[in-house]
Each structure stands twice: as structure tokens, then as C-alpha cells.
Design a protein that fits this description.
Elements lengths: L2 H10 L5 H10 L14 H4 L2 H19 L25 E6 L6 E6 L4 E5 L14 H7 L17 E6 L2 E11 L4 E6 L4 E7 L4 E8 L14 E8 L18 E7 L5 E7 L6 E3 L5 E6 L8 H4 L4 E8 H9 L13 E3 L13 E7 L2 E6 L5 E6 L5 E5 H8 L10 E3 L7 E6 L4 E6 L4 E6 H9 L7 E6 L4 E6 L11 E6 L15 E7 L6 E8 L6 E5 L25 E5 L2 E9 L2 E2 L3 E5 L3 E8 L8 E5 L4 E5 L4 E7 L4 E6 L12 E7 L1
Parallel strand pairs: 11-15, 31-34, 33-39
Antiparallel strand pairs: 1-2, 1-29, 2-3, 4-5, 5-6, 6-7, 8-9, 9-10, 10-11, 12-13, 13-14, 14-16, 17-18, 18-19, 19-20, 21-22, 22-23, 23-24, 25-26, 26-27, 27-28, 30-31, 31-32, 34-37, 35-36, 35-38, 38-39
Helix pairs in contact: 1-4
The structure holds (dicuprio-$l^{3}-sulfanyl)-sulfanyl-copper (RUQ), dinuclear copper ion and calcium ion.
């Protein structure tokens, strides 16, 4: 047995040895595990970084012995019940991040079918994202017209709200890599705005507010909150590069409509994930690095980190009152949310609630009453009462820690929590490779001293190492307790081997009964993080565009033409299956071309593509849409332009010529 595994067992197991753990964990009665899951001491923690991976192998081996899909005889699967037969539609959408692929994806639930991939921070030659002028304007360009950033890392996707549930207007996602927030308009499922956040690194958590904290008549999303994970020099212009004591993180608020950055809060420690209260008054972020450590050991040195609550109304009042500063070239007002400047709860902008070691994830229950944050280096989930946080800000609760109403021991490596709307929480256990179902009220009773209270109700094995977990409508007051999706970080032996880069497994679990039941595995291209599951009837899309929404549309066939100003050539063109509006485009080498193409087909699903041989130009126009590209004719010759998207029986014949004279 590898040394790291032995070290890990010393951390986790009080009695017995590792093989004991291997054999018993799966089949042990649900409640019987609890005594073995103890807080980890500081000294043991240094081994954990290696232990996570090794535990992954242990889980894999464990499953080889059982060979069933669920790996657990007490849980049936319910695959057949949830089959979506040919011709039938899914009952939910899942809007998922894609990790360092930089896009957002839409899956059907329960089928797990991929419905769409929405390019956001990445380039996508299928639609021409990062190629058309319209997408480049959203992505942002350098002086020479090239796209400023061509990569990104999306982790979290959340929708806009009205009255505590989704209104199908917008989705937002983060870019952890280049610190940008993107918005997707849900009627078209396309990205329509991207904003760079100033003075932050590691922009990770993101969450829209659910109503206005000040104006009760505004019951919809007006702000989006963004947590930055990595402290950095401020401003980051070459100063203090080797002095971590001078670095800090900022929490950012972005306007939902204008997508302008409204304000930032300087904090101690870091941000990670973000959640918001249903009354619009609080935003929360979990902190794993209250130590402000620059190396791993330092980030794990404190026994407790924090869940931080932001008092939105007070922050905005402070900004209105001019109690703000700016950082570097940014004009965004920044308020001081550091611990030292917020000692008096009655005026504090920020409340730091201590929670066990290196928490990950913060989620609010659908009734709005509780925030749950889990310590990944502690086998616990911490339940914080929304009402008590309000009371802390009113000076009616003495210590920050007094807002904690429960801290059940639920298993090893807890990360994200989803809710069923019936009082139960479902938390991913990274190290245990399980989902644990626990009851919030029972956890509160146990915390109060009720020895008969048993918060943990059920466990199910997943394959393997779940990171994200989320329930159907679980981030809304309409949480319906039907499905839980486990986003697993390792798939190992679950699919046909395809080389060293493994696909990811998403496992869908039926949570409608007392026992969780596995529905199926579906694959995901690496590597999605968080997602939301939205009832299908909530989502309203338009299936054909309106030509009038495109200001540069070439509205009639008579407008097909080529114009020249000096060496700039403007081509205006239509497409209608199986024809382009011009037979050829003739230019001189060195000319700069702008081609604008409007698709005149009105039929749903009748998309045309536009590709130029050996010129790296490639984009589509959906029915009634217009897109344009600008490029230099730097090679002489005759190059076929062809329709790339199968549109007609004569699709192959849908061609024209691009002639560049030497
Ligand atoms: S955070 S596990 Cu963005 Cu959980 Cu991915
Ligand atoms: Cu038009 Cu294929
Ligand atoms: Ca820490």
C-alpha cells in the first residue's frame, strides 16, 4: 500500500485499518459510518493533497470487486423509468459550464443528451465564434483586430431570477483564467456580453441576486456577484510581486443589464464560490485561504476559515456616500471590507463567519433559511441561518460563529450541496466518492444536543470523486426534489478507453424517494464543473431570428454588391438555399475584405455556412441572421467558397468563387 494511502487512513480512520475501510464503507449501514469520520488534526493535513488522488484509486478498485453500476446492493437503479424514447423530449435542461474548454453546454435531463454547446470564451469554428466581427466585438480585440483572449475557464453557470425562480432571460458564467464575466441571452442561447473584471485573479464563484435589497418592487435580478480566488498585488503593475502580505482579493458586483462593474469590496482572505439570499440583501462567499497563504501548507494552516456575508444595502450606501477608493487605472469604486475596518456589526459591510478548515461551496436552501458551506478538510457541513446573519448585522447576535445552527458530520471531502425542497440536503463527498443525503432540521436538532437526531439519511456511491452536485430547480424556491446530478472528476473504468485523456462522468440520480437511485452515467467532454437543472417549461427560445435584429442585414437580393474604397472592399451578400447572392468575389492581393452575409431562408433549422478554401474563414448564418468577417486577401489565386452546413439536396453545389488577382 502506498505511503500516502497509509497516511490518509491515519487521518480518516480512528479504529481499524485501511482494508477494513475498503470492505466496510460501501455496505456499512448508513448511520454506522459516523463515528469513524472525525475532524482531522492540523498535523495530519499536510498529507491530504496526495491522499485525494490515492483515494481515487482505492475507490476504483473497490468498484471492480462489485462490478455493478451503483456498487451498492441497497440502491437499485431506476434507469428504465427515466428513459427518454426516440421522438420524446427531455423534461429539464441542464446548463453546464465546460471548465477550461471555455464554453457553456446544454444537456437534456434525464437523457443526458448534449443539446448545444455555446461558445463563450473559446473560439468555435462551427458557428464562427471568434471569427465573425460580431463575436469579436463581444470577445474584445487588440489594436490589430485580433481577439484579445482566445481561451477561458468556465466553472459556474447561473440564470436570472424573478420572484425567486428562473425567468429565462439570462445566464451568466465566469472565466477563471482571464477574469471575465459573460452573459448568455436565453432566447437565442448565445453569448451577448463579456466584461473584464479589474484587479482580480482567479474569478471563480458567480451568483446573480434574486431581488433588489432596497426597492421591494424590484423582484428580479439586477446584480451579479463575482468572487476572486487569488490575492494579487494591487494594482498589479509590477509592484509588490514578491510580497504576499501586500496582496489582496476583491469581491465584485456587476450590473445585470449594462454588464458594467458596479463596485468592489476589498476583503481579508480570498473568495471561492458565491451564493445569494432570497431577500436580495446578502451575498456570501466561502473562503479557504483566510491565511492569505501563497503556498499550500500556509493555506491549510488555520483550523478554521470562513464564510463571508456581504451586506449589499450597506455597501451601496457607503459607495453613494463616497466612502470608497479606486485601484490602479480602474474607475470602479472599492469599499473596505477588511476585518479591522468592520468591527462594529451595526455598521459593518461584511461579516466573517468561521467555518471548519478550507471550505468549498456555499449554497442556500430553497426556503431561503440556511446557507450551507462544507469544509473539504473537515468531514462536516456548516449550516448558517440567514436570519441570524441579519441579526448579527443588527448587533443582536454576539459572535459571528453564533450564526451557525448545525455542523453535521457527513463524510470525507464534502464539496457542493444541493437541496430537494423537502428539507433535505445532498452533498458531494470527493474523498468518499459518494453523495450523502442529510436532513437539515435533524442536523439542527443534533447541534442543539438532541442525541437521538440522525441527520444522515442515505448514501450512494458515485464513480468517482464527485466535485459538483446540483438538484433539479435546486437553486430556486421551486426546488422539486426529482434529480441530483453528480459531476464526477474521474471516470477511470466507466467507459470504453479513449487514451490518456478520459471523458468525464456525469451521473444522474433519482432523489424522489427515501433512497437515492442511480439513473445513468453520461459522458462529458472535459471538464465541466457546476451546472443548473431547469424545468423545460421555464425556458423559452426563439427558433428563427428576426432580420431586423441585425443592423447590418442585407435585406433584399437587389442589395447583393461589391463596393470598393481604396484597398478596402465591402461585399454585401445573401444566402438562400442552394444559392449565394453572388457568383464570385474578385479582388486584388493586399485588399482588406469585409464580407457581410444575410441568410434569407425563413425555415426553422435552415442554417448556411460560409467557408473559404485556404483562407481560414468559417462561420454560419442561421435563418434570417447576418454575420460579417474582415480579413486580408494575402494570397493570389482562385479559392472556392462553399456552404459548410448541410442545407439542401444541392448543398454541395452551393458554391461561389473568391478570385484574388496578383
Ligand atoms: S468549483 S469542484 Cu468551480 Cu467546486 Cu469546481
Ligand atoms: Cu447552404 Cu449548405
Ligand atoms: Ca485555510
Amino acid at each position: 500500500m502506498p505511503q500516502a494511502l497509509l497516511d490518509a487512513s491515519a487521518i480518516y480512520i480512528e479504529e481499524g485499518n485501511m482494508s477494513d475501510y475498503d470492505n466496510e464503507t460501501n455496505n456499512k449501514e448508513v448511520l454506522g459510518n459516523e463515528s469513524r469520520r472525525k475532524f482531522m488534526g492540523t498535523t495530519a493535513v499536510a498529507t491530504l493533497a496526495g491522499a485525494g488522488m490515492v483515494m481515487g484509486l482505492a475507490s476504483c478498485k473497490k468498484d471492480d470487486q462489485t462490478t455493478t453500476a451503483s456498487g451498492d446492493s441497497s440502491h437499485g437503479t431506476s434507469a428504465g423509468e427515466h428513459e427518454v424514447p426516440p421522438g420524446k423530449l427531455d423534461s429539464y435542461y441542464s446548463f453546464s459550464s465546460a471548465g477550461h474548454n471555455g464554453e457553456v453546454r446544454i444537456y437534456g435531463i434525464p437523457s443526458g443528451r448534449v443539446l448545444k454547446r455555446i461558445p463563450v470564451f473559446n473560439m468555435d469554428c462551427m458557428v464562427g465564434w471568434g471569427i465573425t466581427n460580431e463575436s469579436k466585438a463581444i470577445l474584445g480585440t487588440n489594436a490589430d483586430g485580433s481577439v484579445k483572449y482566445t481561451t477561458g475557464d468556465t466553472h459556474h453557470v447561473h440564470g436570472s431570477y424573478t420572484d425567486g425562480t428562473y425567468n429565462s432571460k439570462y445566464l451568466w458564467t465566469n472565466d477563471k483564467l482571464n477574469n471575465r464575466i459573460a452573459r448568455i441571452r436565453m432566447d437565442r442561447m448565445e453569448c451577448d456580453a463579456i466584461t473584464e473584471l479589474p484587479n482580480v485573479q482567479g474569478f471563480h464563484g458567480i451568483f446573480p441576486d434574486k431581488r433588489d435589497p432596497v426597492d421591494a418592487s424590484i423582484n428580479y435580478t439586477t446584480r451579479v456577484f463575482c468572487g476572486s480566488e487569488f490575492a494579487s498585488p494591487q494594482p498589479n503593475d509590477g509592484r509588490d510581486t514578491s510580497d504576499p502580505t501586500k496582496w489582496y482579493s476583491l469581491f465584485t458586483c456587476v450590473d445585470a443589464e449594462s454588464m458594467q462593474v458596479r463596485w468592489q469590496v476589498r476583503i481579508n482572505g480570498n473568495c471561492d464560490l458565491v451564493a445569494t439570499s432570497y431577500d436580495g440583501k446578502l451575498a456570501a462567499t466561502n473562503q479557504y485561504n483566510t491565511e492569505n497563504g501563497a503556498v499550500l501548507a500556509d493555506m491549510m494552516s488555520a483550523e478554521r476559515d470562513a464564510c463571508v456575508f456581504f451586506n449589499i444595502e450597506r455597501i451601496e450606501a457607503a459607495i453613494t456616500a463616497g466612502k470608497s477608493f479606486t485601484v490602479g487605472d480602474s474607475k470602479v469604486p472599492v469599499v473596505d471590507g477588511t476585518i479591522d475596518s468592520n468591527k462594529d456589526p451595526k455598521t459593518a459591510l461584511v461579516c466573517y463567519v468561521p467555518v471548519p478548515k478550507n471550505p468549498h461551496g456555499v449554497n442556500i436552501s430553497p426556503d431561503g433559511k440556511y446557507f450551507v458551506s462544507s469544509g473539504k478538510l473537515s468531514p462536516t457541513a456548516t449550516v448558517i441561518a440567514t436570519e441570524l446573519v441579519h441579526k448579527w448585522f443588527a448587533g443582536e447576535v454576539k459572535a459571528e460563529r453564533d450564526t451557525v445552527v448545525a455542523e453535521p458530520e457527513i463524510g470525507l471531502g464534502p464539496l457542493h450541496t444541493g437541496f430537494d425542497g423537502k428539507g433535505n440536503a445532498f452533498t458531494t463527498l470527493f474523498l468518499d466518492s459518494q453523495i450523502v443525503k442529510w436532513n437539515v432540521d435533524a442536523a439542527i436538532a443534533q447541534f442543539k444536543g438532541d442525541k437521538t437526531a440522525k441527520p444522515v439519511l442515505d448514501r450512494i456511491d458515485v464513480h468517482y470523486q464527485p466535485g459538483h452536485g446540483y438538484t433539479s430547480m435546486g437553486e430556486t424556491k421551486e426546488a422539486d426534489g426529482k434529480f441530483f446530478n453528480s459531476g464526477n472528476k474521474f471516470s477511470k473504468d466507466r467507459f470504453l478507453p479513449v487514451g490518456p485523456l478520459h471523458v468525464e462522468t456525469e451521473q444522474l440520480i433519482d432523489i424522489s424517494g427515501d433512497k437515492m437511485r442511480l439513473i445513468h452515467d453520461h459522458t462529458a467532454y472535459p471538464e465541466p464543473h457546476d451546472a443548473i437543472i431547469v424545468r423545460a417549461d421555464v425556458v423559452k427560445t426563439r427558433q428563427v431570428s428576426d432580420m431586423n435584429d441585425f443592423p447590418n442585414a442585407v435585406k433584399t437580393f437587389e442589395e447583393n454588391r461589391i463596393e470598393r474604397k481604396g484597398n478596402k472592399v465591402m461585399v454585401y451578400m445573401t444566402s438562400q438555399a442552394p444559392n449565394f447572392g453572388l457568383p464570385e468575389i474578385k479582388v486584388r492581393r493586399g485588399d482588406e475584405l469585409t464580407i457581410t452575409l444575410t441568410n434569407h431562408d425563413k425555415v426553422e433549422d435552415l442554417t448556411h455556412g460560409f467557408g473559404i478554401e485556404n483562407y481560414d474563414v468559417n462561420f454560419i448564418v442561421n435563418p434570417q441572421e447576418t454575420h460579417s468577417v474582415t480579413f486580408k486577401a494575402d494570397k493570389a489565386g482562385m479559392f472556392w467558397i462553399y456552404c459548410t452546413h448541410f442545407c439542401h439536396a444541392l448543398h454541395l453545389e452551393m458554391r461561389m468563387r473568391f478570385i484574388v488577382e496578383a
